[in-house]
Specification:
Elements: E1 9-13, E2 33-34, E3 37-38, H1 39-49, E4 54-59, H2 63-71, H3 73-77, E5 80-82, E6 89-91, E7 101-106, H4 113-118, E8 128-133, E9 136-138, H5 142-152, E10 156-161, E11 171-175, E12 178-183, E13 195-196, E14 200-203, H6 221-228, E15 232-236, E16 241-243, H7 247-258
Parallel strand pairs: 1-4, 1-8, 4-7, 10-15
Antiparallel strand pairs: 2-3, 5-6, 8-14, 9-16, 10-13, 10-14, 11-12
């Protein structure tokens, strides 16, 4: 059995993405397209490239759009023949379908990030799991990230990245590889400071710090407490990382896709 076989990837897909304007009026933020595919698909391809094919999607705002995408995946992405009586679908192309297990869970329209994660606890059977946001892509080495997490034996690992100047993100105050203080969205981020880039790995002990109350925010008390108790380490990544927070970001990612997208580590 491979070490990736039981480790699931949890992706937060429930936010409203209001800063993307018209892009998210009719669809959830993770369904905004980069190169004709939802950014969520790109994130899943990153993990899949390292052998992680078991996903738990925390749905919320317009979650039916994500559910319908995966329920109709073959028909939406490939030329195909459909048998109306049996419902069987046969693709007409030679592409191999993604070998993904996708668990789609409605975690509520108004739940905050911590509550969404707590609500999927029952679907995590292994000692460790991965977690990220449904709006950022990167070329971080997921395999090395996991190895780092297993080696230091702390409850949590956050991928630290360098921010785009115009944004506010959770700032990481670091001593060696340990997060000493997790400061969510300071007014001004220190020069050359690492910020929370998502792409977490957690031991399931982390669930004890979360609540199903919709007001539980992952980036506040749970991560702040983890840092204060010395149980949150940072995996430093100085390569490519880009979130999709506003329409300008979506435009940038689409331009990169038309060239040589840094996060595209898989073969067509």
């Amino acid at each position: 059995m491979k070490k990736t076989d039981k480790i699931k990837v949890v992706i937060l897909c429930g936010g409203r993405g209001t800063r993307l304007g018209s892009e998210t009026e009719s669809r959830p933020k993770p369904m905004v397209e980069i190169g004709g595919r939802p950014i969520l698909w790109h994130i899943m391809k990153i993990y899949s490239s390292y052998g992680f094919n078991d996903f738990v999607l925390c749905l919320g705002y317009k979650g039916e759009g994500i559910k319908n995408y995966f329920l109709n995946y073959q028909g939406l992405n490939y030329d195909c023949i459909l048998n109306l009586k049996s419902g069987a679908i046969r693709t007409l192309e030679h592409h191999l379908l993604e070998d993904w297990n996708v668990t789609l869970i409605d975690t509520g329209q108004d739940a905050q990030t911590g509550a969404r994660v707590k609500k999927i606890e029952r679907f995590i059977e292994s000692d460790n799991f991965m977690l990220t946001y449904g709006d950022a892509v990167t070329n971080v080495d997921i395999g090395k990230l996991l190895e780092f997490h297993l080696r230091h034996k702390k409850i949590g690992t956050v991928t630290g990245v360098f921010p785009v100047a115009r944004y506010q993100f959770g700032e990481l105050f670091i001593k060696k590889n340990r997060v000493d203080i997790f400061h969510e969205k300071p007014i001004k981020v220190r020069k050359n400071a690492l910020i929370n880039g998502g792409f977490f790995v957690f031991n399931r002990k982390f669930f004890k710090l979360l609540k199903e109350d919709d007001n539980c925010i992952l980036e506040q008390e749970p991560l702040e407490r983890l840092a204060k108790t010395g149980q949150l380490n940072v995996y430093k990544h100085d390569g490519f990382w880009q979130c999709m927070d506003v329409a300008r970001d979506a435009e940038l990612l689409n331009r990169l896709w038309r060239g040589k997208a840094p996060w595209k580590i898989w073969k067509d």
